Amino acid sequence: MTDRLPHEKGFHVSWDQLHRDARALAWRLQGQGPDEGAWRAVVAITRGGMAPAMIVARELDIRVVDTISVKSYNHQTQAAPKIIKSPDMDVIGDGTGVLVIDDLVDTGKTIEAVRRHMPKAQIATVYAKPMGRPQVDTFITEVSQDTWIFFPWDMALQYVKPYRGTD
Ligand SMILES: O=P(O)(O)OC[C@H]1O[C@H](OP(=O)(O)OP(=O)(O)O)[C@H](O)[C@@H]1O
Ligand code: HPA
Ligand SMILES: [Mg+2]
User: Where is it mainly found (predicted)?
Assistant: First the structure.
């Protein structure tokens, strides 16, 4: 196990921002598939890849959507990645024409495991850190390695006290 704390910086992503960035990812992937530009399926890396994968599948009109589940983190601590649920390999095959989507690549360990499973798939993430960047084929925004990305599903709006209080 690797202790990944502390992260110097935080990058907070709102639902709006995630929607924009996932759409930008879809835009970048559009027309790049092997069948006259089309992709035949989307595989989301659960759980973080599910919202971006849904947005990409919607934008690119892909109706075949499956999941792969890789468990490697417990909060901010990383263990060896393990595939605990595989997509339907009769549909996915070696991954040709398949888009694999995740929210981010950090060390690249998760994607390394996924690529072994589907060597011909196109792997795309919305965000990327430098260490994992060589593992992905396409991404939208890079953040530094010492930044922890906070996703909207992990956050809640909170009251903030004004600078100049009355109490
Ligand atoms: O590049 P890596 O260092 O392997 O890290 C990236 C992975 O870590 C997070 O998932 P996590 O395993 O926390 O599971 P979750 O998506 O279910 O939250 C994130 O969603 C990526 O899938
Ligand atoms: O920066 C991160 N944010 C959320 N989950 C993660 N899993 C690995 N790195 C991160
Ligand atoms: Mg994940």
Answer: membrane
Task: Please name which of 54, 57, 119, 124 lies closest in space to residue 93, comparing C-alpha atoms.
Answer: 119
Ligand 2 atom at minimal distance to the Cα of residue 11: 1
Cite the active site residues. Answer: 102-103, 106
Residues 38-48 pLDDT 10s: 999 999 999 99
Is residue 4 in some structural domain? no
pTM score above 0.90: yes
- Separation of alpha carbons 167 and 158, rounded Å: 19
Domain range for 93 is 15-152
ipTM, two decimals, is 0.99
> Is 109 a domain residue?
yes
Q: Are 118 and 101 in contact (CB under 8 A)?
A: no
